[in-house]
Design goal:
elongated; 7% helix; 2 domains; mainly beta; six-stranded antiparallel barrel; SH3 type barrels; six-stranded mixed β-sheet; Elongation Factor Tu (Ef-tu), domain 3; 175 residues
Amino acid sequence: MQKEDCFYLGKIVSKHSFKGEVLVKLDTDEPEIYENMESVFVSIGNNLVPFFIEKCYLHKSNLLRIRFEDISSEADADRIIGSHLYLPLEFLPKLSGNKFYYHEIIGFEVIDSQHGNIGSIIAVNDSVSQALFEVKKGDKELLIPVADNIIDEVDRANKILYVTTPEGLVDLYLS
């Protein structure tokens, strides 16, 4: 399994018991849907390694307490602390309406209510406090905030994102 075929589920942040249980900080708005998993992929070096789960349940809001089958001591758990967990893309819950996953909208055309086609989404930068669509139009790159009040419609069938950008934003880039 390759990382591009998977989505990031969370990170192993600490040990929980002397028997090798770990706590995972989940990157999701709905942690409860991941309570009864049978396995996950753990990123070790450049590889995704399948780990089978013996027991798994929520522990305080968005932390998941996991006991893996082959992790039975603190030393075993220490080796995977800080590792990222992944699941295959087909395990993502389907979204509808104006909700979307960032990977899902790459390549969508962006149609602004004032300026028409302002380019296509080449990436989403979520490493900053306000996530941004990176939109390419010719040799210009626009940064559009990912915000509910800007997104008018997500047309999955035609791969179009309809937006109403703040006044003057598009002009900054395309003028």
